[in-house]
């Protein structure tokens, strides 16, 4: 290893990652000739013939019914940006082991060496028969919207872009509990969302689906408040403009926060303390950029009643691991063909419910390590899938 290598073998992070974080393990015995004849040839041929005759049997007699592909193109990895598929692999391995640890879901990292939407869609469609669900990860906006939409339309299994919907589910759960703690109703809250990328769009849509009044929502991008007055909007942002900002507000984030009850930061851009000070009394701030929140929690706490971040070293961590293992466990258990808004709202309600009896300003969401979360989410999601008519079991 050269002296200029970025790797320090003594660093515990590199020691933990040496050789990767996951492996494949057999679930059947392979200790005798009889074992081999059952698990492989000739016995396996009978199972193949049965699935060929009835493709639905693949969920019963292969791992497909409990396996998820974690797919990325490496274009928007954590806070690192477009670092490509190889550098993204440690994150995808990490996602896969979280799936297994918290949801009992087998997951496989799939890092694609293309950032072309058509190619991504084609490759994932071709891989899909091996899996019961597709978790899209760290694909940059706006391409992520089209990739998810096209795969959702094309495949008979759930497709879920976690950077969008996992974040949105946990934000809705946290806001439900924060509103309860402050004796407020979601429909009465004035909400500002800072960021109109993948997470910002999904958070806005999720909050509206969960009961926030769209007329009371204002979304900002790097150029300021999104509204019908803007002529520079993409199709996704134009749709947001049509559904939000009913009062037609203009200006920057400071104007957007004037009198607001809630700030959800999913942009990574810094928000000045003066803007937070302009919020209504008893407010709520979710500053979710990681590792540097849009406004430091201690600064936000000077002006609002409840603060959450995306960091593990502050209270109220808005962490996607609260959502995705249980969401996919429930979807796979129900053999769902897709993940509906109703399933996502059910997941948020389940997360919120885990700590409903012990709410405090420093505990509006469960710990990511709370073993109650994934089972509660899975049960709620499976029930919602059956209610929404997308379950096959």
Briefly characterize the structure.
By secondary structure, this protein is an alpha/beta fold.
Please characterize this protein's 3D structure.
42% of the residues lie in helices and 11% in strands. The protein is of the alpha/beta class. The protein folds into 2 domains: 12-157, Rossmann fold; 162-393, NAD(P)-binding Rossmann-like Domain (Rossmann fold, 3-Layer(aba) Sandwich), CATH 3.40.50. Strand 1, helix 5 (84-103) and strand 2 form a beta-alpha-beta unit. Helix 8 crosses helix 9 (198-209), helix 8 packs across helix 15 (341-354) and helix 15 packs antiparallel against helix 16. The mean pLDDT is 95.
Could you list some keywords that capture this structure?
10 strands; single chain; Rossmann fold; 16 helices; alpha/beta; four-stranded parallel β-sheet; six-stranded mixed β-sheet; 2 domains; 393 residues
Q: In the CATH scheme, what's the topology name of the largest domain?
A: Rossmann fold
Uncertain segments = none
- CATH homology group of the largest domain: NAD(P)-binding Rossmann-like Domain
Our count of helices gives 16
Give the radius of gyration: 22 Å
Total strand segments: 10
Please state the structural category.
alpha/beta
CATH class of the largest domain: Alpha Beta
CATH architecture descriptor text of the largest domain:
3-Layer(aba) Sandwich
- If strands are numbered along the chain, what order do they take across the biggest sheet? 7-6-5-8-9-10
Tertiary shape: globular
Q: Biggest sheet, in brief?
A: 6 strands, mixed
- Give the terminus-to-terminus CA distance: 53 Å
Q: Please, what is the average pLDDT?
A: 95
